Amino acid sequence: MKVILLNGSPRKGWNTDILLHKAAEGAESAEAETEIINLYELNYKGCRSCMACNMDGKSWGHCAWNDDLKAVLDKIDRADGLILGSPIYWGDITAEMRAFLERFLFQYTNFDNGRSERKNHLKAGFIYTMNAPAGYMNDLYEKYEQFLQPHAEYVGTVECSETLQVEDYGKVHLGFFDGEQRHNRRETVFPEDCKKAFELGKKIAQ
């Protein structure tokens, strides 16, 4: 069992990254092999609409574009589990995660019959972090679950809301947010989110 975890956040050691590591721990507790990949470290773009993945030949069902994301897509093609993690920026996942999904989803989608060309069974889940309150982005979660479902068994979503953005709110102009309240949630709510991420990873690996 191999589980790939993709970090769509530019910030290492913060909310999304921490939760993905907890998910990896959960998968490893079920004896899965894990690999965390930071999308912001890669040089790639979204779908270029070259149509190679929809033409007969060696690229049928596979993205033909040879950049840093190609190796990642190849790893996922052989993997048993996939956990995506992204903060919410201006009402959606990050540009890096969205670009990945364009390449991931288009290559497997058969536009003749609407079915998936993915050959191996894949379990998938999504971890979202955000400044918004719980439930605010439910429509977004449902949208990406629907996008993934033709190509994977969707296992679950972890929502981490009203996150701690910085350690010292006095050093940045974030007066709209209550720094004391965010620090309190970091101590009381975030550990529960970490447990949920752990359980998601474990469930995907089982």
What are the SSEs and their pairings?
Layout lengths: L1 E6 L7 H15 L3 E6 L29 H11 L2 E9 L2 E2 L1 H14 L14 E7 L8 H11 L4 E8 L18 H10 L1 H16 L1
Parallel strand pairs: 1-2, 1-3, 3-5, 5-6
Antiparallel strand pairs: 3-4
Short account of what is shown:
It is built from six helices and six strands, in the order βαβαββαβαβαα.
Account of the 3D structure:
The protein is of the alpha/beta class and 206 residues long. The chain has one domain (2-205): Rossmann fold (3-Layer(aba) Sandwich). Helices cover 37% and strands 18% of the residues. The chain has 6 helices and 6 strands, in the order βαβαββαβαβαα. Strands 1, 2, 3, 4, 5 and 6 form a 6-stranded mixed beta sheet that branches. Helix 4 (138-148) links the parallel strand 5 and strand 6 (153-160).
What is the string of helix and strand elements?
EHEHEEHEHEHH
Name given to the CATH architecture? 3-Layer(aba) Sandwich
Average of the residue pLDDT scores:
95
- What would CATH call the class? Alpha Beta
Structural class of the helix and strand makeup?
alpha/beta
- SS field, number of helical segments: 6
What is the third-level CATH name, the topology? Rossmann fold
